[in-house]
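Example record for the data management plan.
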Amino acid sequence: MVSAATTGWKHHDLGQEGAAQRYYQVGYKLACEADPHGHAAWMMRTLAHQALSLKQPHYCVDLDEGALRAGLGHIDGRTEALLHITHARAYAATDENPSAARALLAAEDALLRDDDPQPSYSRVSGPAAGTVASHTARTLTVLADHIGTEQQHRDALTRWDPEKYKRVHALTHADLGDSLAAQARADEAVSAWTQALALMEGMTSDRTRKAITSIRSTLAIYQRRRVPGAADLARRAREALAQHAQQPARRREHRGSADRRPAEGPHAGARIHDPAGRRRHRPRQGHQPRRPPPAQREREVRPGDVGPARRQE
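Corresponding structural encoding:
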C-alpha cells in the first residue's frame, strides 16, 4: 500500500498524473481492505491532494470530509493534522474562507496532541509540522494573506531537513519568493528565487519546471525596472527550462536503446525495433537472406486463387 502511494507520488512529481491516480486508487483499495479507517482515510487525502494540484478543487472537499469521517478516532494527532490542513486548502480553493480558517485551527490543535505514534503511511511524507506549515502557507496564499504566507514558508524551511528534503526546500524558496513579490519586495524575491534555482540544479521534476516557469513573467517586469540580479536570474531560468525540455528526450532515447541489440556477438540476429515500430530480425554477419525461387517471385495472384475461407475474412 505504501509502495503504491509512493510510486503514485513519483509519477505525480514527474507530471504523469494519469499513472499517479491509478497507483493512488490501487493504494486506496488495498488500504480499505487492510485498514478501512486510518490508512483508507490517508489515501483519500492523497487523492484530494492530487485534485488540488490539478486545479479540480470541487472534488476535494467531499474527499477530505470522507477522510475525516473515516479517520477521526482512529488516527494520531499528526496524521489528523495532515487531513485537516488538506481540508483547509480545499475550502480555500472553493472560496469557503471561514471554513478554511476553522480547518487551519483544527490542524494546529491536532498537531499539538501528543498521543499515539505516527504510522508509517503518513510519516513517509515527511515531518508533519513541516507539511502543515507548507500547506498553511499555500492556504494563506489563496486567502491573499501574503505576510502570513511568508511567515509560514520561513517556518517550514526550519522544519524540513535541507539535505534529505532538497526538493521541498527548493519549492519552498520558490513559493517564498512569490510571497515576497506579492508584497512588492523585489530584491528579496529575486534572492529567494535565486536560491530556489540553485537547489533545483540537476532535478528531474515537473513541479520544479512549473515553479521556474511561473516566475518568468514577474522577472520580465523586474528586468524592465532594472532590479539587481533579475536579468541574470531570467537567463538562468531559461537555461534551466531548456535542460528540463531535453530530459524527456534523453529518457525516450534511453528506453529505445534497450530495444536495440548489437549486430555482432552472441546477440546477433535478435529482434530490434524499426522506426515504424515493427519488429524485424537483423541478419547475422556473413549470412545472406534466402530469396524465394523465381517461379514464386514472378507468379501473379489470380482471382480464382482465393479460396472460400479467404474471401469470408
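Summary line stored alongside the record: DSSP finds 15 helices and two strands in the chain.
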